[in-house]
Amino acid sequence: MIKKIEAIIKPFKLDEVKEALQEIGLQGITVTEVKGFGRQKGHTELYRGAEYVVDFLPKVKIELVCSEDLVERAVEIIMNTARTGRIGDGKIFVIPVENAIRIRTGESGTEAL
């Protein structure tokens, strides 16, 4: 069984999370710079004397696909490494993956990871 883990975290935590995941043998992650809000709901800023609302905050989305036996450990690592204890630390989603195929070789399933 293959699972996809998507984690949305604070940008300054990316390197720490990446290194921790590599230490358990997970390689091959995709990182996207994203913007969003949850309970944080943004904040107001002053720019050239005018006040404006910044309601989409910069975040980083990490995506990785791994075998089911590594999911629990990977989620634990992301949680512990990305946590600051403040609002806006992010979310983790675990999604089932029907199949994975390595384009170069045609391998599928866990062999493609």
UniProtKB/TrEMBL annotation:
Pfam families documented for this protein: P-II
InterPro entries named in the record: N-reg_PII, N-reg_PII-like_a/b, N-reg_PII/ATP_PRibTrfase_C, N-reg_PII_CS, N-reg_PII_urydylation_site
UniProt KW Transcription regulation keyword: yes
Listed PANTHER family: NITROGEN REGULATORY PROTEIN P-II, NITROGEN REGULATORY PROTEIN P-II HOMOLOG
Protein name in UniProt: Nitrogen regulatory protein P-II
Similarity comment text for this entry: Belongs to the P(II) protein family.
Gene Ontology CC entries for this record: cytosol
Listed SUPFAM superfamilies: GlnB-like (SSF54913)
Organism expressing this protein natively: Commensalibacter papalotli (ex Servin-Garciduenas et al. 2014)
Subunit structure: Homotrimer.
